[in-house]
Here is the input.
Amino acid sequence: MGMRIITMDDFEEMGRKKVIEETRKVVGDLPTYVTFDIDGLDPVFCPGTGAPEPGGLSMRDAQVVIRGLQGLNLIGGDVCEVSPPLDPQGHTALNGANLMFEILCVVADSLARRRN
Here is the structure.
């Protein structure tokens, strides 16, 4: 199918840097849309999702990996699976908004490089 899957066990074994390298190798210079499913984070960072996944990424892991996409041919992105009614304190929405900001930054950089 041409899909590369990196499990959480793979992520821990490889580390952030190698996961970013592998992602960049797989994507190459192809136009790429980035989607981040919030339930990929450990539930301590995102209780407001319909499918919490214990043992997921930390917020810092997610931020570093997204920032590691800078320089790729990014065409857009989104964050999905945020359910504010399941998190009255708003941690999930805050973290989702932060990850969307990170995605927007790397996409904006990609757009600016294409225009220049």
